[in-house]
Design a protein that fits this description.
Radius of gyration: 21 Å
Structural class: alpha/beta
Order of helices and strands: EHHHEEEEEEEHEHEHEHHHEHEHEH
CATH class of the largest domain: Alpha Beta
CATH topology of the largest domain: TIM Barrel
Number of strands: 14
Bound molecules: S-adenosyl-L-homocysteine, iron/sulfur cluster
Helix content: 25-40%
Largest sheet: 10 strands, mixed
Length: 347
């Protein structure tokens, strides 16, 4: 039966080599198979014509290669596309293709169905966690979106907290990085976290990937109110972990800051932010709060957004403002919820 077979999309190179050894095959065959799966998008072993017929039959007996097609694709007036994928158990996840300049595109992918972190400003957070995604379920979002055009960068900023599913996320990153596979360089993928401190240290030990941290407040009082995770890992510990991550990986850490009207958008906040970032190789990505039905929060006035950004720029902090795309199809940050959840939401 199919579900007792191994989905090769779930395996890292080491694991695939091990699997082949167990089948009595040379491990260098792994590269040939990866090439078929990821570079030629072949899922039927019968078509892998540089493998012996025997070997192909054996593979078909023990393994399969999953392949995804979006169940629905919504297209925004600004060109952003939202893909909805139905999972084997009936759950769903979303990924978003965001067009950038010069024909480039960023793909935003999900790492969990729902999220357990309960950030108060995030729609995904209000539904709780349903389950972790497997490595193959993370990788397949990229494979499916690649069928719809090239992708320059991948961001783990869709549904879910990537560091709450660390092992599967690290495996998925290893697969996305494979030279014989999709070949994403580690500078082309960014992992965004709400700040799980022990997992930030573990990540630094396990793999090199760009890190973005959702800061969103400059005092423990406000941050704990917005993001319950801050009660467990307060700002001081979080900033120390980020400093260490930047040191070990020799990369700047990006701090995401969702500006919420009257909550975290004052110049006093900007001042505290400058102090917090002192000594951390970093840049700031300002995101204007995306409003959604049922939220108690609202976006700040344009003037306060500009003042906040200028304050940072004048103090030589690299602070960009993220253009919010795909609002009309609920594809913007914090608006992903999947189809099933949406139906529940309307009840
Ligand atoms: N769980 C991870 C990654 C997914 S959330 C994390 O929290 O970092 C991706 C980004 O969307 C985070 O920076 C988060 O702060 C932001 N976000 C969540 N809800 C938002 C909203 N309603 N408007 C704008 N940004 C939001
Ligand atoms: Fe989860 Fe990130 Fe949303 Fe917080 S902001 S609830 S961590 S997805």
């Amino acid at each position: 039966m199919e579900n007792q077979k191994v989905d090769l999309k779930n395996l890292t190179l080491d694991q695939l080599q091990q699997f082949l050894l167990e089948l009595g095959k040379e491990k260098y065959r792994a590269k040939q198979i990866l090439h078929w799966i990821y570079q030629r998008n072949v899922t039927d072993f019968a078509e892998m014509t540089d493998l012996s017929k025997d070997f192909r039959l054996k593979l078909a007996e023990k393994a399969f290669v999953s392949s995804w097609y979006p169940e629905t694709v919504e297209i925004s007036s600004d060109g952003t596309k939202k893909y909805l994928f139905r999972l084997a158990d009936g759950e769903s996840v979303e990924a978003v293709r965001i067009p950038m300049d010069e024909g480039r595109a960023t793909l935003c992918i999900s790492t969990q169905v729902g999220c357990a972190m309960q950030c108060q400003f995030c729609l995904t957070g209000t539904f709780g966690l349903t389950r972790n995604l497997l490595p193959g379920e993370i990788v397949n979002q990229v494979c499916a979106a690649l069928q719809d055009g090239p992708i320059s960068n991948v961001v783990l900023m869709g549904m879910g907290e990537p560091l709450h599913n660390l092992d599967n996320v690290v495996a998925a990153l290893k697969i996305l990085f494979l030279d014989d596979g999709l070949g994403f360089g580690n500078r082309r993928i960014t992992l965004s976290t709400s700040g799980l401190v022990p997992e930030i240290y573990r990540l630094a030990e396990q793999i090199k990937v760009r890190l973005a941290v959702s800061l969103n407040a400059t005092t423990d009082e406000v941050r704990s109110r917005l993001m319950p995770i801050n009660k467990r890992y307060p700002l001081k510990e979080l900033m120390k972990a980020c400093q260490e991550y930047a040191r070990v990986t020799k990369q700047r850490v990006t701090f995401e800051y969702v500006l919420i009207g009257g909550v975290n958008d004052s110049l006093a906040d900007a001042g505290r932010l400058v102090k917090l970032l002192h000594g951390v190789r970093s840049k700031v990505n300002l995101i204007v709060f995306n409003e959604y039905e049922g939220s108690e929060f609202s976006a700040p006035e344009e003037a306060s957004i500009k003042a906040f950004q200028s304050y940072l720029l004048q103090r030589e902090i690299v602070a960009t403002r993220r253009a919010s795309k795909g609002q009309d199809i609920s594809a913007a940050c914090g608006q992903l919820k999947g189809k099933l959840d949406g139906e529940q939401f309307q009840d």
